[in-house]
Amino acid sequence: MPSRKARSVTRYLMDRRSRRSRAIMGKAAPPDWLAVTETLQLFHAQRGRARGAFARFVAYGVDADDPYDQMPRAGLGEESFIETVLDNVAGQPIGAEVPKRLRPARSLEQIERHAGGRDRAIAEAHATCANSLTEIACYF
């Protein structure tokens, strides 16, 4: 059974699921903290197809069982241990042993903030291969 903390987080997220989903689908303005680009990239490289896959994922997940309950626990430890480990690593940089191709891509917003100019930001965004040229052109 999930801990009280996990249940409260799940309840919090479920209450806001509709609002977040609308923002990820481009039908509402996303809050600053919502990683729309990164979320969509988990579903497909092309934004339109990613939104379709995300919509199917949300529709399927509404009444689905919690996948955490179906996960094998061998070697992971008790739930309190897992929560402690996750709390300790939250916000830490990704280690050098994780290949760059497996790291989450920076959003166009993040690239723009750190690039030091529009042209450089466009070049960096293109170099990530995370966005189409159309998406880059529309953003900049």
Uncertain segments are none
Q: Which secondary-structure class do the elements indicate?
A: mainly alpha
Number of domains: 2
Strand content is under 5%
Average pLDDT level: 77
Give the oligomeric state. single chain
| Radius of gyration from CA coordinates | 18 Å
* Straight-line distance between termini: 47 Å
Q: What percentage of residues falls in helices of 4 or more residues? A: 55-70%
The largest sheet is: none
Task: Give the H and E element order.
Answer: HHHHHHHH
Word description of this protein:
The model has no long low-confidence stretch (mean pLDDT 77). This protein folds into 2 domains: 1-70, no CATH class; 102-140, no CATH class. The N and C termini lie far apart (47 Å). It contains 8 helices and no strands. Helix 6 (108-115) crosses helix 7. It has helices at 4-24, 36-41, 47-61, 67-70, 79-89, 108-115, 118-128, 133-139. By secondary structure, it is mainly alpha-helical.
Topology record:
Layout lengths: L3 H21 L11 H6 L5 H15 L5 H4 L8 H11 L18 H8 L2 H11 L4 H7 L1
